[in-house]
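New to this. Please check this protein:
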Amino acid sequence: MNWRDYNNGIIAFDAGYVRPLLVAIHMVVERGRVAFIDTGSQEALPRALAALQRLGLPVSAVDYVILTHIHLDHAGGAGGMMAAFPNARLVVHPRGARHMAEPSRLIAGVTAVYGADYVARVYGEIVPIPAERIIAAADGHVIDLAGRSLRCLDTPGHARHHLCIADPASKGIFTGDMFGISYRQLDVDGRPFIFPTTTPTQFEPEEMRQSIQRLLDLQPEAVYLTHYSRLIDVPQRGAELLRRLDAMIALAEAAADAGEQRHDRLQQAMTGYLLAEVRAHGCTLDEAAVLDILGTDIELNTQGLCVWLETARDP
């Protein structure tokens, strides 16, 4: 299941969501106690159980399931994990806590984006979590994992319910979607390709810039992305991420006056831009293969930018 042990108490494995190397679940292991960070969908539970078994740990060793945010590729499996891990507490942004206890609005929102058939096929049943097992973690909240401190950072921009998790012991940060997306299939000679994710419906560019800069100011040695796992050379990656964020905003503004053609024009521009950037990065995969990897993100980024234009820019 694409097991990556970073030899610092952090392990990543593939959640098995949609395709290989799309969603990473991270484990922090400290003195036999475990925190899972992000959950993938319900399909990930057998993999999480297998990960514990591989480490020789029982389900009772799991103290926390931590969500960077409540989009279902990050949180869809939380209910199943919480049912399987009797000692665990769920840690989530205060704006997301009520939706994990009563997920009907969350399900309705994702259904509006993807459609009911897709939600049923990919996510299955979204299981509510008892409110008394949920920790609503505000900015600065510290999680104590067997003496290892994990600090929650309120990082809006991708979503208003987004947390990043700083881990001073490893000098790393678990960034969810805030530090963009970097698929390992697009690596060239060990160099990653990174780009922002401007999801519907809460994308806010200035807040995203500020959150990315906050992470950079902490000078981490590594960031751990849900899509997909560890990146080093963080200042360089951050500069690339901010440059591409500015470029995507410019693409959206250029399409702002296109009326009913706005979505299609922006999607076409986004596709051309990312293909050109991947080529400049040195990736030699053919265009069809690159679009197979990036197609869903191109569509979601287009939707996110269109919603931003409609809410923040249109009269």
